TrEMBL record:
Protein's name in the database: 7,8-dihydroneopterin aldolase
EC code(s) of this entry: 4.1.2.25
GO MF term set: dihydroneopterin aldolase activity
Residue ranges of domain Dihydroneopterin aldolase/epimerase in the record: 9-121
Substrates-to-products reaction catalysed: 7,8-dihydroneopterin = 6-hydroxymethyl-7,8-dihydropterin + glycolaldehyde
Protein family per UniProt: Belongs to the DHNA family.
Domain of life the protein comes from: Bacteria
SUPFAM superfamilies in the record: Tetrahydrobiopterin biosynthesis enzymes-like (SSF55620)
Top EC group: lyase
Keyword annotations: Folate biosynthesis, Lyase
The protein's annotated pathway: Cofactor biosynthesis; tetrahydrofolate biosynthesis; 2-amino-4-hydroxy-6-hydroxymethyl-7,8-dihydropteridine diphosphate from 7,8-dihydroneopterin triphosphate: step 3/4
Keyword Magnesium tagged: no
Amino acid sequence: MSPRTSDELAVLGVECWGHHGVFEFERREGQTFVIDLVLGLDTTPAAASDDLHDTVDYGSLVADVKAAVERDPVDLIETLAGRVADVCLRDHRVEWARVTIHKPDAPIEATFADVALTITRRREDAT
């Protein structure tokens, strides 16, 4: 974490419908993906001003993340997680983003609770 930022904004459990996966039936039928976002940012300006313009609008962020998940199928959740992290880092105030992609209906021949991948990307990593 950056020495400048000790604040975290979390939006957890964002449900999206996507057609991602390596199997043809995953791309054809689609499935639920659940996204957790944790952003590192300085919330001091927003706390002082009490103005939405001084912080990340998490309503707009969620809409952008859903759009990113629900478009252009990819094979791997690693690729999808990178796409979502890029969306989070578009806002210049976000210093880092921790993204977890849950794929609870992954095609696994066993009883399991969840498949999840978590990545962390920092502003200097963004393209």
